[in-house]
Amino acid sequence: MNIFGPTPAAAYTISNPDQVQNAFRRWRTRILLSTIIGYATFYLVRKNLGIAMPLMEKELGITKSGLGLFLTLHGVVYGFSKFINGVLGDRCNARIFMTVGLLTSAAMNVGFGLSSAVATLGFFWIFNGWFQGMGFPPCARLLTHWFPPRQLATKMSFWNTSHSIGAGVAVVLCGYLAKTNWRLCFLVPALIASGCALFLWLVLPDTPSSVGLPEVAGTEAAAKSKGSTFNRFIMQNVFGNPYIWLLGAANFFVYTIRYTVLDWGPTLLIEAKGLELTYAAWIVAAFEFCGLLGMLFSGWITDRYFGARGARTCVVFMAFACVALLLFWKIPHQSSFVSTTLLGLAGFFIYGPQCLVGIIAANLATKRAAASAVGLTGLFGYASTVLSGWGMGALVQHAGWDAAFKTLVGIGLAGTLLFAAAWKSKAHGYEE
């Protein structure tokens, strides 16, 4: 693990105020853009299976329950990996950690794309889930070390567009690649991810001190507060914070909705709406694009109107996501335009909470344990694949899509209530 050790402080420290300000401006722009590109690329080698599933079902004879089991095992392993690697990521070099994670995910995609046996496919996809868990922790480490807590909702919501960019590009790219051969949905993204890993290695730093800059204003207290050891700090500020547990539970329901649409959306639109695969891919991409806008708006409204208290924004967004899904389900004889609009609205509102849960947890745990806190809420989020993957596959196979949508609306209401229970959570965990 020594190769992942954090970069030591530079031998020099920039002290001139103008030079410090200019250096921070350059590094922050560089970090924000490069981590958006990097994390979006993680999605290219994670969210490619949903497009390939209808073709794999026909060619390899795998049932919906079997494909759903792939999604579930991948998601559960990814959730545990995100949590464990989150704890490690708080103490690791962000550049090395993220680069290694992306390279190994690319390798797992190559193995998956060249396989046909169910056991071999499952092996590669499960291990892909583990290495995918090395993507977010270094991003959380970088963002919480380089941006002050009062700006984090706005900046991190902009960063969170990487989710929608990556997933949207994945479904559209793979929608066209699958017309030639479903295996290209894994081999081509793996090639792109390998190139991006090299890019991250060349451009990412670690903490401000590693490049000779001072700590970010407003975060110094994290190093001294509530415990002298890292383990004690996590127990008090992550596991001992009831609001982080509430956010984690709510995240389970957020991700159930998000991944049901993302993973099963192409199959739903083909079977229930009679659409062609490429067109279905574009509609799911619209869900992601509207989610991108929802992330940006949710971060802005949180900092502008709720004093960085993101749980309050989540209550509103989650409630409207339920309404959009209900209308998508209940309005009869929908045109493609109406279906796309309603699914887009669902994406806009569900991606607000998806974005904000990590931001709230990171701010509450402070920069010292941000990746650990986000890993814990992520563990709940990706545990949802038990329901959104295998559960939805089995439910649709035996009871149809109406039963699935009834379940999703109930899930959305449960998430809304949990966010309401976290209404009084603080804006951050730093000492005032």
What does this structure look like?
The protein is mainly α and 432 residues long. It has a single domain (29-209, 231-421), classed as Growth Hormone, Chain: A. It has helices at residues 17-44, 49-60, 64-89, 94-113, 118-132, 136-146, 152-159, 161-177, 184-203, 230-239, 242-271, 277-305, 310-330, 336-365, 370-383, 385-399, 401-421. Helix 1 (17-44) packs parallel to helix 8 (161-177), helix 3 runs parallel beside helix 6 and helix 7 (152-159) packs antiparallel against helix 12 (277-305). It starts with 16 loop residues before the first helix and ends in an 11-residue tail after the last helix.
Concise account of the structure shown:
The protein is mainly α.
Please work out how many helical segments DSSP would assign.
Answer: 17
Would you state the CATH class?
Answer: Mainly Alpha
Q: What portion of the residues fall into strands of 2 or more residues? A: under 5%
Enumerate the spans where pLDDT stays under 50 for 5 or more consecutive residues: 222-227
Report the count of strand segments: 0
* Radius of gyration, CA atoms, in whole angstroms: 21 Å
Could you say which structural class the secondary elements and strand pairing correspond to? mainly alpha
Helix content: over 70%
End-to-end C-alpha gap: 35 Å
CATH T-level topology: Growth Hormone, Chain: A
Q: How would the global form be characterised?
A: globular
Please, what is the average pLDDT?
84
Total tally of structural domains: 1
Question: Based on the structure given, which CATH architecture is correct?
Answer: Up-down Bundle
| Topology pattern, helix = H, strand = E | HHHHHHHHHHHHHHHHH
How would you characterize the largest beta sheet? none
CATH-wise, what's the superfamily?
Answer: MFS general substrate transporter like domains
